[in-house]
Amino acid sequence: MNTKLTPITQDSLTEASALIQSGQLVAFPTETVYGLGGSALDAQAVLNIFRAKERPVDNPLIVHIASRDQAFPLCRWTDLADTLASAFWPGPLTLLLRRTEMVPDVVTAGLSTVDLRLPAHQGALAFLRACALPVAAPSANRSGRPSPTTAQHVMEDMDGRIPLILDGGASGVGLESTVLDLSGEVPTVLRPGAVTPEQITMVAGSCEVASSVMRPLEVGERALSPGMRHRHYAPQGRLTLVEGEPEAVAEAIIGLHDAQPEARILAMHDHIPLYDNRPVNDLGQDAADAAHRLFYLLRSFDAQGVPRIFSETLPPTGLGLAVMNRLARAAEFDIIKV
């Protein structure tokens, strides 16, 4: 199969819509990361997503919609969902709700819930409107790898596997959406993202964070949301996190790096002077910068064949919780505390 990479135009949207409606796959940009889309109403198309990604079928998918009205036939919509959608849609918030029979089992990994999101990216919305149906879409990468934040990242993983990639430029957020479970009594974050638990609490009145956000799933524990598997977002090289006060962390990473000089270092911008002119990859000034840069940096390490990576950690609050969730899973929870 030849994979075509093209800018978003009226012609490419018409082509993309025809592919989706015929059961084929299209990669498209969102404000979070690039998605790999297929018709959420076509079980075979959804199976094709799993096949292209080499993704386990027990990992549920997010259904992307072009308007709130598209959500109503797919789920048991609630007053709280309406309140949260009014506050955060379009945007990087996925709402997990009780599903209807309209949603094929393969989309939800057999769960009684469905994940729904209305993205804010104008290219994504144009694509979804052109499709005129809900689109199931995980990130457009091979399973387990860092998520793609550019169309070229998608091409690296999906060339020859899908017919079309819509190029909408670099993703703004750089991390996948927040997944919020509304199926229980208290809204619960299953996967942190740009919409933080603190922001949700201000709108919903309360919000919990699932314990699985910062730990691997237990044996036999089901993934209720995308991104909950043990090894996820991972570079090819082994990643280790070092946690503690900045000076102690830098001292530990320097020791680790100097014993393995081929290793690379990830550090926050203000901490770079602590590394005494060693080559350090800059995660940025704050959690928003780190979120935007993380997957890009991990993929650049893969392109360079970097075998070992040592990274600082961030405080797990606000957007920092989302960055730490991705880092911890990418490192398979290999965390050294100093």
Topology:
Blueprint lengths: L3 E4 L2 H12 L4 E3 L6 E5 L3 H11 L8 E3 L14 H10 L4 E6 L6 H4 L4 E5 L4 H10 L3 E2 L14 H8 L5 E4 L10 E4 L6 E4 L5 H8 L3 E2 L28 E6 L2 H14 L4 E4 L12 E3 L4 H18 L3 E5 L6 H12 L4 E3 L1
Which features characterize this protein?
alpha/beta; eleven-stranded mixed beta sheet; about 350 residues; five-stranded parallel beta sheet; 10 helices
Structure explained in plain terms:
With 338 residues, the chain is an alpha/beta fold. 32% of the residues lie in helices and 19% in strands. It is built from ten helices and 16 strands. The chain has an eleven-stranded mixed β-sheet with strand order 1-8-2-3-7-4-6-5-9-10-11, with helices on both faces. Strands 14-13-15-12-16 form a five-stranded parallel β-sheet, sandwiched between helices. A hairpin with a 6-residue loop joins strand 9 and strand 10 (188-191). Helix 1 crosses helix 5 and helix 9 packs parallel to helix 10 (319-330). The longest helix has 18 residues, at 287-304. The chain is globular and about 55 Å long. The protein starts with a strand and ends with a strand. The model has no long low-confidence stretch (mean pLDDT 96).
